[in-house]
Fold these 2 entries.
Entry 1:
Amino acid sequence: MAERMLTYAEAIQEAIDEEMTRDPSVYVLGEDVAIWGNLFGCTKGLLAKYGKERVRDTPISEAALMGCAVGSAAAGMRPVAEIMYIDFISIAADQIINHAARWHQLSGGKVKIPLVVRTQGGVGFRNSSQHSQSLENWFVNIPGLVVVMPSTPYDVKGLLKAAIRDDNPVIFIEHKAVYRNKGNVPKEDYVVPLGKADVKRAGTDLTIIANSWMVLHALEAAEELAKSGISAEVVDPRTLYPLDEKTITDSVRKTGHCLVVNEAPADGGWSATVASMVMERCFANMKKPTARLCGRRTGIPYDKDLERAVVPRVADVVREARALLGR
Amino acid sequence: MELKKSDLLKMFRTMLALRAVDNRLVPLKLKDLVMDGFHPYAGEEAVAAGVCAFLRPDDYVLSTHRPQGHAQAKGASMEAIFCEMLGRMGGPSNGLGGPMQWVDTGNNFFCGSIVGSGVSYSTGFALAARREGKGRIAVCFFGDGASNTGSFHEGLNLAAIWQLPVLYVCENNQYGEAMPVKEFVSASKISARAASYGIKGKTVDGMDVKKVAAAAAEAVKTLRKGKGPAFIEAVTYRYRGHYLGDPENYRTKAEIETWRKKDPIDRLRRELAGTWKVPAAQLKAMEAEVEKLADEAQERALARPKPTLEYALSNVLVPVAGRDA
């Protein structure tokens, strides 16, 4: 496929555009998705191309927009519902957790909820404590949901297309710090399957498992570690649930060391799930217990430096990797 | 709209069926075969029967934690209701849902136990229905208590600005659990809340199935043309507690008796016998038949198996494309 550079935001826009063309039951709704085309341009131009019926600005009513999305999904449409900041998802938690995740089972498998909840989390814009959280752990714990967190323009496009085509409710969490990052996005139609991890960098000394923005940190850290002769493999699960356990365990069995990096706090979280799964499956092949590097258990501060200091940075990943290897 | 004798007989029968099932669920609960979350419907039958009399099978209905009346009036069989209440295979959710939450795809019926939440889904069903263009509508039943939730207000506003074909039916049964409506609803009429969103609202006597049916028929007619939403507040009463075993220390026996005198079934029986000259024997025969059908449905449901653990672990996710292939 020919190389073509797009930003993460452009890749999202293209994915939605292509899926809307392919399937007339796909529609977009959310706060400022139509006239503004989303805060980061992720739905830019769709209103002009598809009109108001299929690209719907909603009131600032997260429960109502999510309820509308869930109801319409149960009735056969394929909504791409946007929650502008993941922090606002608390208002729509009932719709997602008690209903979207439950109706398929309660209907004996007859009703499908092909819903994509697009949202974004994490630090990076000095948005402080109610606009910067990493809340993916809430959803990983809910039976009936798929949780996706793409790190690159290529992945975000392919995963979003897969999410829109999937018949499950998918919580699709983007990261505000990566929207302007550029990467190769082939023009040809492709999907990245849900539930498949990607080895972003091959290595032999340790496995760094990271998600979302932390993948980019891990890759920078791996570059830094390479300067002192440490070969780090970086695995991006891409889908938090269902987790691609095979790709992860294959890597850890090979390297014998495992570091999990996650922006969310460590307690009760996905990072702990990954760490325990690795210990359960790979113990015999491991030279050290799995290490974790996570966000601090505090509110996200407003100050630019402090905001960065409470979540893992590249230098932190390098330090933890060295500590794990004792090198 | 002028109600015909056949309409009245149909609604009479529906109300009898709802009452017959509810009356049987009480002893089943006392035997611990149905759990505490069973919320009796007796007293409110005119609302379900009146509203559903003019619905099409393909219309969507969103209901509450007290769904058995709406479900049956919308088309669910007595046996299906007994099965779900008893937690048996054969219920709409094969007993996984129980008394408060199930999905009945065959009847386009969804209910849940989060008060007010249904209002939010009704907009989505209505949006899909309008897009389809076949005159389908969504009906959303909820109680007085739901009118204080965020989902209610957010949902009404969204349906109003998008003019979605939703019929909101507020069953004002005077109490939100133990709290009297007058103490927790700021508006004198709940239908006034609809008016504040520019939605045509009406408050009707919910103990009179003719009044409910007339209001519903008029609203449904408009909604089928794609004009909406509409709102009916039906003033009604639940004879039994919020749930069975509720201490009922918030109301007097005299109050319950006052409402029982307005019983919707007795009222329609008198009218059918009087105005419509239906022979008493015909009405009695109908009642006996419904009772017999309810007994038989209950027996069949009791003979059904419970869902297995394997079933309880199934249908959590649709196989994820690519991964599970």
Entry 2:
Amino acid sequence: MSKKLRFTVALWLATVIFLPLAAIGAGRVSLDKYHSYEEVVALVRNMQSAYPDLTTLLSAGKSYQGRELWVVQVTNRKIGVPEEKPAVFVAGSLRGDEPVGTEAALAVIDHLLSTYASDQRVRQLVDSRTFYIWPLPNPDAHDATVKQPGKAEIANRRPTDEDRDGRFDEDGAEDLDGDGFVAQMRVRDEKGDFVPSRDDPRVMVPRSRRTRAELAYRLYREGLDSDGDGACNEDGPGGVLLNANFPVGWKLDTELPGSGMYPGSEPETEAMLHFLINHPNVALLIVYQSGDGMLYRPFDSMEDKEIPRLDREVYELFGKRYERITGYGLTHGYPEATKRDTTTAAEEEALKRALAEELPGELSVDDILRMGNIRELVNSPEARTYIQQYGIGQSTIDKLIRLQELRQSGRRATSAPTERRRKPQYGTLLDWAYKDYNVYALSPSVWTLPAEYGKTDTVRKEAEETRWIGFFQDEWQGKGFIPWHPYRHPTLGDVEIGGWVGFYRRNPPPGKWLEKVCQQQAAFVVEAAELTPAITIASVEVVPLQVLGNTGQASASRGGDGAIILTAGKGGDGALTLAQVKVTVQNTAPVGTRCALGRRTRYAQQPPRAVLAYLEGQGGALEFVSLPKVLRLGNLEGTNTKELALQERRQAEARTERRPPSGPEQEEETSEEVGTEPDRATGSWLVKIPNTVRALKVRAVAEKGGVAEKTVQLRW
Amino acid sequence: MRSPGKSHGEESFLVNWKNYQDYEGMTKILKGLAARFPKLAKLYSTGKSRMGRELWVMEITNFASGDTLEKPGFYIDGNIHGNEVNGMMVPLYSCWYLLTRCGHDDFVTDLVDRLVFYIRPSVNPDAMNSFITEPNTMHHPRWNYRPIDNDGDGLYDEDPEEDLNGDGEISLMRKRDPLGRWKVSPDDPRLLVPCKASEPPGGWTLLGTEGMDNDGDGRINEDIPGGLDMARNFPYDYSVQNGWPFPISEPETKGVIEFFRTHPNINGVFHYHNSGNLIMMALGKDARMESAPTATGERRRRGGPELPPLSPEEKKLMEGFMNVSVEPSRQRDLTMYQILAARGVQILKYRPTLNGGAGQFPPWTYSMYGAPSFLIELWGIPGDYDGDGDVSETEALRWVDEELHGEGWIPWKPFTHPQLGEIEIGGTYAKFVRRSPPARFLEEHCLANTRFHLYVASELPRLELTKADFVPICSFSRAAKSGEGATGELVDLKLKEASAEKGVIGWLDVEIRNQGVVPTATAQAVTIKATRPDRLRLVPSSGIQILGRSDPPNALGWLSGFTTESPAEVEVGYLEGRSSKGYRFLVKVLQGKAGTITIEYNSQRGGVLRKTIPVRFAS
């Protein structure tokens, strides 16, 4: 194991940096614990000193509390320029309570570096691609979590006045019973929304309408009403939920608590946005999360029909590889709209609009609906006076009643305990990366209850909850679920403390479970990176049209009879040749140089860079007869997408024959010849080549497909 | 003695306002004002532009009259588009106007005492400075200086416009061409007009703005320096197509938005652009201007705002904005805008209209921050000689001839272009004619606009204590120091320990009024919870106790909503424009001790009102 030896030696050579030895074992990052910020930084610094040619540490900025936002660049710097290679961006979780994402990101770096010498596939990738790995997107909350997993923090550390009382972060959760965990509190309350499950009374389940009131409980997070406003834990430390702070689908804080003052308002998210925009070579983005094991693709905030078919196929390609490695498939966050949903939504919308017109201005529709059951309300004397005073008709009242019914039935459907529905998420990195940044974006949800503990049960959710408790007992010394025990609470009275501790469901136990997650994710990044675009120059053809003299200036004029009269200059010594230089650029990777959604988007200021080709003479300057000198060759499909693209193109052509084209969805203007091979593009220059030129160099640059060069020798 | 015929302090800091300033000139005026009026003005920077210029903000208030964050804030900026330089001159003039007149003009003095002004003359100082100091068309440079590859060839900003003939202006290029589709206008030989499809060729081809093909791609001026449109870079109704790469991506816009985070007291926003003579008001992108009044609009209008008397011309300008429809919950914001805009119509003769969304700044300050927000499209060339409501090209030229003696029109002149051969350059207006007023009209232009935004500032919430009356109930001479509560069928009220205190119990009726048209929180601010709810608090000195609180009595003396739970503090929510709210407090005053009751009304955007009322017994 010379590799191991080399790593260890390099480690000891790096004397300037302190490294907790426990973190390193057998040349790999040890996974018997979660690493704190300092430990992660020490680890990556050591990786850099062990593999200086492959690793560069970049800082993208500082977190709210001033921790450095490190990006580890992994690529072979001796081959090519890192910024010109197609890049894969990998980020740990944006939630502070998911340090498993950080470990997965570290495992990717570790895998790329430690197998570079031994694994042909990895070497090829690290030579030809650039990896930007961002292990700690939310370092402040991550650090707090790792140091006290029982009190995990999710949001960043910006002080926020959640309860709008003018004070910041004054009522957070507390570990009341001093067991080191902030768990839950349950209090008997006839109006509570939860009941103990019949199968397992430890597990609290949402209360159905049939449950008797005396069984009901109210659930709280463990803690006090520290500011004496009657609510417990409503203004905790921090913060902004970073994965709700990106621009696509972003909503105001009032609609989506924790979304921040504006998209990108946080130092952590702003730094990531700037980093990505400044690295347009990124072709694939992977951001870790935790929860159900699946691989998430966009959209979190929009309906699936917004994704072009071609991109869906590409996502399937990633999904198949993920499934082969992990056993979990591809999914997306935004719920499928059922037919009922859409018709109800449309009816609700229509009613709301009609009512806004019909009702007097003083009260909004929502105000009236909040007053109570309209059917009963209309008979009250106050309502009668109001109805008479404003001349509100019976049809308006009927509309109000119908709207209220629709809303109530909608609420019942979504809160039914047996139905696990996907939920839309707004302002996520995943959606921004795909929709506005136009790269393929994936979010592996790396951890869930292992399959050994039974399958996910969408019908009887509580059965799965019981199995979680079993898993915690077997694998995590019983942490994660605290048995309910009585506690005398200063404001709530007699309560029971116990239940779930968030951290343990979102992160695998260190050791074999964490190792498994890390191995799988590292393997997936390698497989996914292999799909990213890579261009080559398939051919350069030089077609001499005419040998010219170096004084061979011709002129033309018109004769009196309209004839064209040409005057030839002297010359013919062969010092210049008029030639057509034809280049064909090809994408040899499975995925195209730009996602289909990106190609549809029209940018007012900065058009997305197509594949550009440059021509240069060696030994003398070329004189360009045709313009432009820089050829724009458009975007190239990949080997796996070209068939589908061709089909779509034929369909589109058939459609345009039937009706005239309309504005926004046109392809950008390029000199590309639309052929039968969408993964290739050909362009040509007309140039005068002096006979001093010994070679022609063609260079092709794709923003997300790398650089290709070819030199053609000329013999005169 | 103040007199309309005397100086109002102008000589304390003389500025020639018939002159456009560049960045240096602007900075010199701002620094000079801050140095001359240290008790009224502070100048600070909210960061640096892309080219390293300071992003100045001038804060103006009477610093001696209270904590600035406890006063309603009024924010003015302009010139987010670098070429819109009158958008910078109006806020700059406004700084000077407020500071020099304060102490000489009661209206201004009152504003400077009660309010705090945050004035940012230029959001885009880089492009502004280039526009003023270098040859340019009236349209460029508009954006900031983020390098952008407009033509997608891998090079940045490599094909700018050039002043080829060195006349200090960028104008148009034309070439004689037997097949050209442009002809000399029959109305004025200086103008070129396009030929109609049925007409023969007109003899001229237009070749675009003055410049060269610098990058050899066969196109002229297709990758000019900069940048992105910062007026599409704000988060409300943002789209990546126009606001690439993401909201608040620029140091200039970042400086603006973070300013609003640290100044939650701002309750009015003015944002200056040119041109078009418009008063645009942000009301959410769902607000619509109806062509004719709708039935509901008509109904609402009957109970609508009372406007100042308007001339027929002013009524016509106002008409469209009276037919705006908006979601009922925001109706009161529309009413507020209608009242404020009517004064704008009187002063400026601009047309009030809606400001939609699309990543612009005022729609963000209204919809996502909750402040009344105005976008002014300054100036439009005068010269509607035929009174058809439109200034035609020939009318504009006539105006230039008559008012500017021809200065401002660039005649066609022959030029030998290295790439295009024999051409002519000219045929446009100089920079300061069509989009911004010529310097000789600048001062009156700035004054009129300052008058309008200061009027709006004067209508910001003005809190007054309109009532603090004591209505005695009874006097007492023995009171329970501590009683024991009991429940049951028969309650035996025993005074556990009696004291020999003497005093009076009575009602204190308090009423707070907002005299301004602008509410302490707009309907939008309430919806998005942009503000902390207003609170009314009574702080009694020792010897005075607040025992309970209720709503004010109705005409028959009927009380409702009596409570003894935290009686001295009440969450009022907000005060609408020109409205009051009252409360009745049950107060116990002990004899023998002179005391005070401090009434404090605390509003994040309406200011803080504190009044201390002495209470004593007749001797």
